[in-house]
Amino acid sequence: TGSIEAKEGISAGIAAAGRARTGAVAIDAANGPDAITAPGHVFPLIARDGGVLVRTGHTEAAVDLARLAGLNPSGVICEIMKDDGTMARLDDLIAFAQFRMEPAPALPDLPDFLTTHIDPLTGEDNTYDYDGGAAGGVTTHLPQMGIPQPSAEDLGTDPAQWAGLVSRNAPCPCGSGLKYKHCHGQVA
Protein backbone atom coordinates (compact mmCIF):
# COMPACT_ATOMS: atom_id res chain seq x y z
CA THR A 1 0.00 0.00 0.00
CA GLY A 2 1.06 3.59 -0.46
CA SER A 3 1.57 6.15 2.29
CA ILE A 4 -1.37 8.28 3.44
CA GLU A 5 -2.16 11.37 5.50
CA ALA A 6 -5.30 12.90 6.96
CA LYS A 7 -6.41 15.71 4.67
CA GLU A 8 -7.42 17.97 7.58
CA GLY A 9 -6.49 18.47 11.23
CA ILE A 10 -2.72 18.03 11.02
CA SER A 11 0.28 20.23 10.35
CA ALA A 12 3.26 18.62 8.61
CA GLY A 13 2.07 15.11 9.47
CA ILE A 14 5.38 13.77 10.68
CA ALA A 15 4.73 14.36 14.40
CA ALA A 16 3.13 11.63 16.52
CA ALA A 17 -0.06 13.70 16.84
CA GLY A 18 -0.38 13.99 13.06
CA ARG A 19 0.17 10.28 12.58
CA ALA A 20 -2.38 9.48 15.29
CA ARG A 21 -4.90 11.78 13.61
CA THR A 22 -4.26 10.09 10.26
CA GLY A 23 -4.89 6.69 11.84
CA ALA A 24 -8.12 7.88 13.47
CA VAL A 25 -9.38 9.40 10.22
CA ALA A 26 -8.46 6.32 8.18
CA ILE A 27 -10.37 3.86 10.39
CA ASP A 28 -13.46 6.02 10.92
CA ALA A 29 -16.27 4.43 8.90
CA ALA A 30 -17.94 7.83 8.58
CA ASN A 31 -15.04 9.08 6.46
CA GLY A 32 -14.66 8.38 2.78
CA PRO A 33 -11.57 8.35 0.58
CA ASP A 34 -11.76 12.14 0.33
CA ALA A 35 -10.67 12.42 4.01
CA ILE A 36 -7.25 10.99 3.16
CA THR A 37 -4.51 12.27 0.90
CA ALA A 38 -1.41 10.58 -0.51
CA PRO A 39 1.50 10.48 -0.20
CA GLY A 40 1.84 10.92 3.54
CA HIS A 41 3.70 9.80 6.64
CA VAL A 42 1.59 6.74 7.57
CA PHE A 43 1.98 3.42 5.80
CA PRO A 44 -1.18 1.29 6.04
CA LEU A 45 -0.77 -2.45 6.30
CA ILE A 46 -3.38 -5.09 5.55
CA ALA A 47 -3.82 -7.92 8.03
CA ARG A 48 -4.31 -11.41 6.66
CA ASP A 49 -7.79 -12.91 6.97
CA GLY A 50 -7.72 -15.31 9.91
CA GLY A 51 -5.40 -13.11 11.96
CA VAL A 52 -2.62 -14.60 14.06
CA LEU A 53 -3.93 -18.10 13.48
CA VAL A 54 -2.89 -17.70 9.84
CA ARG A 55 0.12 -15.37 10.19
CA THR A 56 1.81 -14.62 13.50
CA GLY A 57 2.55 -11.02 12.65
CA HIS A 58 2.29 -7.74 14.52
CA THR A 59 -0.31 -6.41 12.07
CA GLU A 60 -2.57 -9.42 12.61
CA ALA A 61 -2.04 -9.25 16.38
CA ALA A 62 -3.10 -5.58 16.50
CA VAL A 63 -6.28 -6.32 14.56
CA ASP A 64 -7.10 -9.46 16.57
CA LEU A 65 -6.63 -7.62 19.88
CA ALA A 66 -8.95 -4.83 18.72
CA ARG A 67 -11.57 -7.38 17.67
CA LEU A 68 -11.29 -9.26 20.96
CA ALA A 69 -11.90 -5.94 22.72
CA GLY A 70 -15.02 -5.37 20.61
CA LEU A 71 -13.48 -2.41 18.79
CA ASN A 72 -12.99 -1.49 15.15
CA PRO A 73 -10.83 -4.28 13.66
CA SER A 74 -7.83 -2.05 13.07
CA GLY A 75 -4.69 -1.08 14.89
CA VAL A 76 -1.65 1.13 14.86
CA ILE A 77 1.74 -0.48 15.23
CA CYS A 78 5.15 1.09 15.44
CA GLU A 79 8.73 0.15 16.06
CA ILE A 80 10.65 1.48 19.02
CA MET A 81 13.99 2.99 18.15
CA LYS A 82 17.05 2.84 20.34
CA ASP A 83 19.15 5.91 21.10
CA ASP A 84 21.54 4.98 18.29
CA GLY A 85 18.71 5.04 15.73
CA THR A 86 18.49 1.28 15.24
CA MET A 87 15.29 -0.63 15.83
CA ALA A 88 14.87 -2.22 19.24
CA ARG A 89 14.79 -6.01 19.28
CA LEU A 90 13.15 -8.39 21.75
CA ASP A 91 15.81 -8.09 24.48
CA ASP A 92 15.69 -4.29 24.18
CA LEU A 93 11.89 -4.28 24.40
CA ILE A 94 11.86 -6.52 27.48
CA ALA A 95 14.35 -4.17 29.18
CA PHE A 96 12.22 -1.17 28.12
CA ALA A 97 9.07 -2.78 29.56
CA GLN A 98 10.84 -3.63 32.82
CA PHE A 99 12.15 -0.06 33.09
CA ARG A 100 8.60 1.26 32.68
CA MET A 101 7.27 -1.50 34.98
CA GLU A 102 4.91 -2.74 32.29
CA PRO A 103 4.32 -6.27 31.08
CA ALA A 104 5.96 -7.29 27.83
CA PRO A 105 3.44 -9.59 26.13
CA ALA A 106 4.89 -11.98 23.62
CA LEU A 107 3.24 -12.37 20.24
CA PRO A 108 2.91 -16.16 20.66
CA ASP A 109 0.62 -15.53 23.66
CA LEU A 110 -2.23 -14.40 21.38
CA PRO A 111 -2.52 -17.51 19.16
CA ASP A 112 -2.23 -19.65 22.31
CA PHE A 113 -5.06 -17.67 23.91
CA LEU A 114 -7.24 -17.89 20.82
CA THR A 115 -6.73 -21.62 20.34
CA THR A 116 -7.32 -22.28 24.04
CA HIS A 117 -10.35 -20.04 24.55
CA ILE A 118 -11.97 -19.61 21.14
CA ASP A 119 -13.88 -22.55 19.72
CA PRO A 120 -12.47 -22.85 16.17
CA LEU A 121 -15.72 -24.17 14.70
CA THR A 122 -18.14 -21.61 16.16
CA GLY A 123 -15.98 -18.65 17.16
CA GLU A 124 -17.48 -18.78 20.67
CA ASP A 125 -15.30 -17.46 23.48
CA ASN A 126 -15.03 -20.17 26.13
CA THR A 127 -12.83 -18.15 28.49
CA TYR A 128 -15.38 -18.11 31.30
CA ASP A 129 -16.93 -21.51 30.60
CA TYR A 130 -15.18 -23.17 33.56
CA ASP A 131 -18.23 -24.80 35.12
CA GLY A 132 -19.86 -26.06 31.95
CA GLY A 133 -22.31 -23.20 31.87
CA ALA A 134 -23.09 -20.96 28.94
CA ALA A 135 -20.10 -19.76 26.96
CA GLY A 136 -19.32 -16.11 26.41
CA GLY A 137 -20.28 -14.07 23.38
CA VAL A 138 -19.62 -15.08 19.82
CA THR A 139 -16.36 -13.76 18.41
CA THR A 140 -16.94 -13.29 14.69
CA HIS A 141 -13.44 -12.22 13.68
CA LEU A 142 -12.00 -15.68 13.54
CA PRO A 143 -12.31 -17.56 10.30
CA GLN A 144 -15.40 -19.69 10.33
CA MET A 145 -14.57 -23.08 8.96
CA GLY A 146 -17.93 -23.49 7.26
CA ILE A 147 -18.34 -27.02 8.53
CA PRO A 148 -22.03 -27.91 8.95
CA GLN A 149 -22.85 -29.63 12.22
CA PRO A 150 -22.77 -33.30 11.27
CA SER A 151 -25.16 -35.93 12.55
CA ALA A 152 -24.13 -39.21 14.17
CA GLU A 153 -24.98 -40.97 10.90
CA ASP A 154 -22.56 -38.72 9.01
CA LEU A 155 -19.78 -39.26 11.53
CA GLY A 156 -19.99 -42.97 12.16
CA THR A 157 -20.69 -44.75 15.41
CA ASP A 158 -17.40 -44.12 17.22
CA PRO A 159 -17.61 -40.80 19.16
CA ALA A 160 -13.81 -40.79 19.52
CA GLN A 161 -13.62 -40.00 15.79
CA TRP A 162 -15.84 -36.93 16.16
CA ALA A 163 -13.12 -34.75 17.72
CA GLY A 164 -12.31 -31.78 15.52
CA LEU A 165 -15.48 -32.25 13.47
CA VAL A 166 -17.99 -31.21 16.10
CA SER A 167 -17.79 -27.90 17.91
CA ARG A 168 -17.28 -28.22 21.67
CA ASN A 169 -20.37 -26.06 22.28
CA ALA A 170 -22.62 -27.67 19.66
CA PRO A 171 -25.31 -30.18 20.56
CA CYS A 172 -23.76 -33.62 20.65
CA PRO A 173 -24.59 -35.59 17.47
CA CYS A 174 -25.53 -38.63 19.58
CA GLY A 175 -28.85 -36.96 20.42
CA SER A 176 -28.29 -36.71 24.20
CA GLY A 177 -29.25 -33.02 24.23
CA LEU A 178 -25.96 -32.13 25.93
CA LYS A 179 -23.21 -29.95 24.51
CA TYR A 180 -20.62 -32.13 22.77
CA LYS A 181 -17.95 -31.19 25.34
CA HIS A 182 -20.17 -32.47 28.17
CA CYS A 183 -21.05 -35.72 26.42
CA HIS A 184 -18.42 -37.39 24.24
CA GLY A 185 -16.15 -34.37 23.83
CA GLN A 186 -14.90 -34.11 27.40
CA VAL A 187 -12.03 -31.69 27.79
CA ALA A 188 -9.27 -32.80 30.14
From TrEMBL:
It is an enzyme of class 4 (lyase). Its EC number is 4.1.99.12. GO terms for cellular component: cytosol. Pfam families: DHBP_synthase, SEC-C. Keywords: Metal-binding, Riboflavin biosynthesis. GO terms for molecular function: 3,4-dihydroxy-2-butanone-4-phosphate synthase activity; GTP cyclohydrolase II activity; metal ion binding. The keyword RNA-binding does not apply. SUPFAM superfamilies: Sec-C motif (SSF103642), YrdC/RibB (SSF55821). Catalyzes the conversion of D-ribulose 5-phosphate to formate and 3,4-dihydroxy-2-butanone 4-phosphate. The keyword Metal-binding applies. This is 3,4-dihydroxy-2-butanone-4-phosphate synthase. PANTHER family: 3,4-DIHYDROXY-2-BUTANONE 4-PHOSPHATE SYNTHASE, GTP CYCLOHYDROLASE II-RELATED. It comes from the Bacteria. GO terms for biological process: riboflavin biosynthetic process. Pathway: Cofactor biosynthesis; riboflavin biosynthesis; 2-hydroxy-3-oxobutyl phosphate from D-ribulose 5-phosphate: step 1/1.
